[in-house]
Amino acid sequence: MIRLLIFSIGSFIVFSIFHFVGKKKKPCKRALVSILCGPLVLILVNVLSNYTNVLVPLSELSFMTSIAGGIPGVTLLILTSVLL
Q1: Three-state DSSP string of 52-81
Q2: Residues 3-19: pLDDT tens digits?
Q3: Has residue 1 got a pLDDT over 80?
Q4: Among 12, 4, 3, which residue's Cα sits nearest to residue 37?
Q5: What is the pLDDT of residue 50?
Q6: Residue 52 in contact with residue 75, Cβ under 8 Å?
Q7: CA proximity to 45, closest of 73, 72, 74, 69
Q8: CB-based contact 20:27 (threshold 8 Å)
Q9: Cα–Cα distances in angstroms (integers) from residue 30 to residues 11, 42, 51, 83, in the given order
Q10: Burial of 67 (0-12, 13-18, 19+ CB in 10 A)
Q11: Are 4 and 61 in contact, with CB atoms under 8 Å apart?
């Protein structure tokens, strides 16, 4: 759990720097949205697993992937789950 928290804070800092260097408005807000969007989609995929027959196991690694990768990261988890 501590690793997940440290990883989240690190991702927030990196995303904030990327948005600041890219001259985006409100870089901290954009970084927070980037970090929160991935895990929410991951949970949504698992909630809808009864209808879609796609289940991504919830683990520390899957949450780290969804935090760092956002929606494309969750898409990668879904593809690996379906193909393997």
Answers
A1: HCCCCCCCHHHHHHHHHHHHHHHHHHHHHH
A2: 888 888 888 888 888 88
A3: no
A4: 12
A5: 92
A6: no
A7: 74
A8: yes
A9: 12, 19, 32, 32
A10: buried
A11: no
The domain locations on the chain are 2-83
Amino acid at 40: L
- What's the distance, Cα to Cα, between the start and end of the chain in Å? 27
| 3-class secondary-structure state, position 49 | helix
The Cα 10–Cα 1 span in angstroms is 14
- pLDDT tens column, 18-66: 888 888 888 888 888 888 999 999 999 999 999 988 899 999 889 888 9
The one-letter amino acid code at 30 reads R
pLDDT of residue 46: 93
Query: Is the Cα torsion angle 69, 74, 75, 78 positive or negative in sign?
Result: positive
Strand, helix or coil for residue 14: helix
